[in-house]
Amino acid sequence: MKKLLSYELREKYLKFFEQNGHKIIPSASLIPENDPSVLFTTAGMHPLVPYLLGQKHPYGQRLTDVQKCVRTGDIDEVGDATHCTFFEMLGNWSLGDYFKKESITFSFKFLTEVLEIPVDKLAVTVFAGDEDCPRDTFAASVWEELGIKNICYLSKEHNWWYAGATGPCGSDTEIFVDTGVAPSCENSNPGNDPDKWVEIWNNVFMEFNRTADGKFEPLKQKNVDTGMGLERTICMINGYKSVYETDLFSDIIEKIAQLSGKPYGEDEQSTRAMRIIADHIRTATFLMGDEKGIVPSNVDQGYVLRRLIRRSVRFARQINVDSKELVTISKMYIDKYKKYYPELEQNESKVLEELAKEEEKFSKTLENGIKELEKVLTYMKNGVLNGKTAFRLYDTFGFPIEMTQEICKEKGYEVDLEGYKVAEAEHIKKSQAGAEQKFKGGLADSSEQTTYLHTATHLLLGSLQKLLSKDIHQKGSNITAERLRFDFNFDRPLTEEEKKMIEDNVNKAIKEDVKVVCEEMTVEQAREAGAEGVFGSKYGDIVKVYTMGDYDKEICGGPHAEHTGQLGEFKIIKEQSSSAGIRRIKAVIDTSKAISK
């Protein structure tokens, strides 16, 4: 049977759903807009949250796309057969249109008729029910009617989806493919035999609203949100043992092996290193090449990016690959994906320059770490390197524990790994506590205060462009119920006079109580009207443009105030550097001074 290529799966998926009444929408940025709960877009539903919550989408009620995503929660698992930090999510949505029966039928037909997967190679899971919500016998009955025999009922832990602590939620049905591995138990199913069954698609049925007191109330608008991982699906239907055998990675792995001088698959350690380099450089390329492209830094998305690049440098060193060649790998990815994500080609020089700079910087860091370690070892008395010291080498110098162990072993020393883990756990605990506070507000917080703060970012951008430079654009935004944080391109700190001018201009717009007008128009019309936006592949044909008098005109899909007077009073509380060439403003509003209507 002919192997299915990644571009074929993308095209078949979009064509199938387009033929079934869905409008194709472009992938959104990897940097979420006004979602304080996550650093990256981790699923296809993130950019669509306002529409899942009831806003009307300009393309209608049936949508489909291929969304670029990044997840780093399982970064230590990368190097195995299936985990990736960057991946593409195929998705289709119903915004108050069809529901369970139609969604399940679409999925079944695509898998069995378009991809020609035999019915007996499929298995599904559905919600088992509990005291909050009943067993999903309806979904199970639809699968049975379609011919699926392997149906497994699982708990909320497996077959339930939440938007956040409160808000839209509902049961889901997950679809699994037989890996071909012999059953390891009687009545093998996805619930008891994970080696045999691998999930490729998840259909979420949002039909409840979880309230603050834990109750589940029926939603007025029932939605369907589905997600199919491109990499994993290509791997499974082609019968590969890992995603790195697919056309998405095979040429990259071949290049890394060539640079290393070691055949891929020769031993477990070098195989894992090659996979990590291939995965991490792909993710780094997409993050730096994104329309809201970021650069390595010590905070937020930039910190994750830096970690990915530095891990790549370390593992390149491990298999004798000159880490300067990571730029070559990145260029291969740009050429591979630019047809589908043109922003990569548009930002190519930036991507390759930033990668080269970070590689050079970390190579020096490694040298400094080695010097520091050797200095510490001269004072060693009992032959064991203290765990706290080992963690300080990592935390301060970025010096990996594996390399510390390797050098210590060569010199006849051991490393107190338990002490290292304790120090690491204490660090993680502090970091998580900070993150919980930092990202307070939850996923898709559409509260009144957050809505007003989002509106304030529009006025802030308009003021920056009017008073400082028309070339200023948004480079990131994070909003909680307490404050807004806004990143923009500018090459120097703002003076106190400039901050005061910007504050005054925003407050002038608020005092004039300008009506916030939303219009739907084509991208070309928005461009001609002078709307702010990153024009290109980000938008579909029809966009929403929000206008606030002469103060701001911007393409946006987020929630907004009805009139600027609702914001009360705007105040900048901090202005600082975010990364090279990027400034950050933190600001608050006092709605007790709002103008009511």
Give a written overview of the molecule.
This protein starts with 5 loop residues before the first helix and ends in an 8-residue tail after the last strand. The chain has 597 residues and is of the alpha+beta class. The chain is built from 18 helices and 18 strands.
Question: What labels describe this entry?
Answer:
597 residues, alpha+beta, nine-stranded mixed β-sheet, 18 helices, 18 strands, 40% helix, 21% strand
Summarize the structure.
The protein is an alpha+beta fold. It has helices at residues 6-19, 49-52, 100-114, 137-146, 156-159, 230-237, 250-260, 268-289, 300-318, 326-337, 343-346, 348-377, 387-397, 401-410, 417-438, 448-467, 496-511, 523-528, and strands at residues 23-24, 62-70, 86-95, 122-127, 151-154, 160-162, 167-178, 197-210, 216-229, 384-385, 414-415, 474-479, 484-489, 516-522, 542-548, 552-555, 570-579, 582-589.
Q: In which range does the helix fraction lie?
A: 25-40%
Mean pLDDT score: 88
* Number of alpha- plus pi-helical segments: 18
The count of DSSP E runs of length 2 or more, i.e. the number of strands, is: 18
Radius of gyration: 26 Å
Sheet with the most strands, sense and barrel status: 9 strands, mixed
**Poorly predicted ranges:** 434-444
Q: Which shape, going by the Cα principal axes?
A: globular
